[in-house]
Amino acid sequence: MRFEGDKTTIVYKNNYIKISHIPLKAYEYVVSGKSAIERVMERYQKMTHKESGITNDPNDWSAGCGNPRYILDLLLSIINVSMQTLETIEQLPVVDFEKEVLIRV
């Protein structure tokens, strides 16, 4: 997976599958210092360990478990969850904790 141009389009696996019109706002949903979308993209990359030569291809696991769309569906879900979470957070009331917190001794 890689970005095509800006972050509004992700090329998945090959040039035939693209996820486009991703709102840039979706990248504001951050998990452990990185957007959830970028975290999934990073985690599900095909990688070869330099020393051992062992290749980890998440697509092999997806096909083996009977759901070759697993990673694509996961990425689509993460984009959706990111947007819904941000919308929910925006609807929460602003709380002034200095006024709301009572200290009891």
Features:
single chain, 105 residues, alpha+beta, two-stranded antiparallel sheet, 39% helix, elongated
Provide a descriptive summary of the structure in words:
With 105 residues, this protein is α+β, with helices and mostly antiparallel strands. It has one domain (2-92). The protein contains 4 helices and 7 strands. The protein has a 3-stranded antiparallel beta sheet, with no helix packed on it. It has a two-stranded antiparallel ribbon with strand order 4-5. A two-stranded antiparallel sheet has the order 6-7. Strand 1 (2-4) and strand 2 (6-11) form a beta hairpin. The model has no long low-confidence stretch (mean pLDDT 86).
Query: Taking strands numbered 1, 2, ... along the chain, how are they ordered across the largest sheet?
Result: 1-2-3
Percentage of residues in DSSP E strands: 15-25%
> N-to-C SSE series?
EEEEEHEEHHH
Can you count the beta strands? 7
H/I helix tally: 4
Q: Tell me about the largest β-sheet.
A: 3 strands, antiparallel
Q: How much is the average pLDDT?
A: 86
Shape: elongated
- Which segments are poorly predicted (pLDDT under 50) over 5 or more consecutive residues? none
